[in-house]
Predict the structure.
Amino acid sequence: MMAKEVTSELSERLRRLQVAVNSGGEFFDPFVSARAQDDLRRAEERMELGANLTVAALVGGTGSGKSTMFNAITGLDFADAGELRPTTERAAACTWNADSHVLLDYLEVSEDRRIEHGSILTAGTDRLDGLVLLDLPDHDSVAVGHSVLVERLVPMVDLLIWVLDPQKYADEVLHRGFLSALVSRADSMVVVLNQIDTVPESGREALVADVKALLERDGLPGVPVMTASALHGQGIDAIRDRLEDAVSAESMTARTAAAELNAIASRLRANLGESEPRMDEDAIDEISERIVRASGVGAVVESIRDSQGLTDSALVMPEQPSNTMVTAIRDTWMAHVREGLPIPWQNAVAGEVASAERLRRAIGGALRSVPLPSISRFPSIVLVALGVIFMVAGLVLAIIGVPFDDVVGRFAFAVFGVLAFGVYWWLAKRRLAHFARQAAERYEKEVRQAIVGVTRENLVDGVDTFLERHRVTREALSF
């Protein structure tokens, strides 16, 4: 993964953790929440040091040729190399096309001990771009100061290069005081036997084997042992290859920051449920339907429908549910919205659900707010009246023989009048029944809307706010 991608990913993780803490902090264990805040600040500070930088450090004792190797690797005559000892009393740094100022300030590398390798013209072309190479003070001359620097460096070093003198590689101060204390960083360590040109070729293999044995005794088996002569450029390319491998891998600062962010997220997730209770329209409609049934609305609707419009309104009235029924409905809803949530979230959600008495009063108010429908029978009366007129007219005309004076014609006219009355009567009755069904449907719809409003106001709205916070917090930690 490219350095910019790593930095972007870590920044996104950090942002999501901050969202989670801001959204759900009050519901986390107080100790966990406080620790998360502190850890986030430290992680942010660590990332500011440069998650896209690869840090390598040359460490060694007086006379090991460490500074000469620094100059050989960089190709610059910058580090203090010479005959006077101790030579390196202050750390030096070389950076390959990267901004390392914050990191070097943290490591307390003086401005006059920093040098840039390359320029804007070479950025992106050097295989070591993004590398910060440190030349640390001689460990056997300023042990206390060096120990402090190493303590600050180790958590972010990607490659620790121990430069040893072939004459002093078995020094107890080196092994007991430093190497054995860095067992946990064995995978990011290389030992270089410098000044190998001073050792006869016949003895070099045995020398390397002896160094490896000492490292194994220190608890560092498998640490690579290389040979080099910084003065003559021997083995420098192999060391550069090691540095290139470190540059191409994810930096220790990035890995450490990622591990810290993951650890913070893991601790925070323990204060969350795996999901939120269902709060969609189906859930709201389901609890509203229970209230509707408990209020006898269904019986009222059926009464209006069955009246066929022959009465002014319903034959039965809706009733405010009993305390026992409302309490049962509320308890069922409470169990639903608290399911799967940790106790602090459960308590917060429960505090937003209206009491049974308040819910009962709200239901009663909603029922009263919807008037029972009134069905107009005037149009049907008009139709019946027209039917009567047609029937009477047919019978009268049949009796007096107008317009037909024969029996068959009179009978047909009378039958027509009676049939006309029957048709208008049927139309009038059907129209009344239609109006009754429409009135029943309209009433049912209005009552359900009123009850859904009560449900949202008393059982959903406040709860939904906290569940949304839980969702935001949970999703922010899903990485």
About this structure: The chain has two domains: 53-250, 281-476. Strands lie at 54-60, 92-96, 114-117, 131-135, 159-164, 189-193, 225-227. Confidence is low (pLDDT under 50) at residues 82-86. The longest strand covers residues 54-60.
